[in-house]
Design a protein that fits this description.
7 helices, Rossmann fold, about 45% helix, five-stranded parallel sheet, 5 strands, alpha/beta
Length: about 160
């Protein structure tokens, strides 16, 4: 991965057990890219880390089971502060409808394998367009609204 070109102060907050492979992979890739990394065992520690890094360019990475505490309210917090979040789904542990809906509602990007983390770090810390142009096209926004409506219908 190339060095970070997103400006000074970029930081990756990795949420989860530091002994598990996904967290170790995220830390290794972020450091290899020259990024500051803050490891947090849970979302509560991550909230404190995010508060301490306010005003910096931030990216949160973690597994669904680690990020979906408190019925997914962490996702809403990230969205409210325009922090990009990438959530690794665990096929062996289904997330449940409520956390998945909270993640999608907040604009969290869901990934299925730790091998996707390098691309995630590159994409997540890419410069945000300053032209005021939305990051998604109208078609993509319509697709997201349709997906949200489908999820809402399924959840009842």
């Amino acid at each position: 991965m190339a060095k970070d070109n997103s400006g000074p102060g970029a930081c990756v907050v990795v949420v989860g057990d530091p002994a598990e492979a996904p967290a170790q992979t995220a830390v290794r890739l972020a450091r290899a890219g020259g990024l500051e990394v803050r490891c947090c065992a849970d979302v509560y520690a991550a909230v404190a880390a995010l508060a301490g890094a306010a005003g910096r360019r931030l990216l949160v990475v973690g597994k669904m089971q680690d990020l979906a505490r408190e019925n997914g309210s962490f996702f809403s917090l990230l969205a409210a502060h325009a922090v990009r979040c990438y959530c690794l789904l665990d096929g062996d542990r289904p997330a449940g409808a409520a956390p998945l809906h909270a993640a999608l509602q907040a604009g969290t990007t869901l990934i299925s394998a730790a091998s996707e983390l390098e691309g995630v770090l590159r994409e997540g810390l890419a410069p945000v367009p300053s032209s005021g142009v939305p990051r998604t096209t109208n078609t993509e926004q319509e697709d997201l609204r349709a997906t949200e409506a489908e999820l809402s219908a399924l959840l009842g």
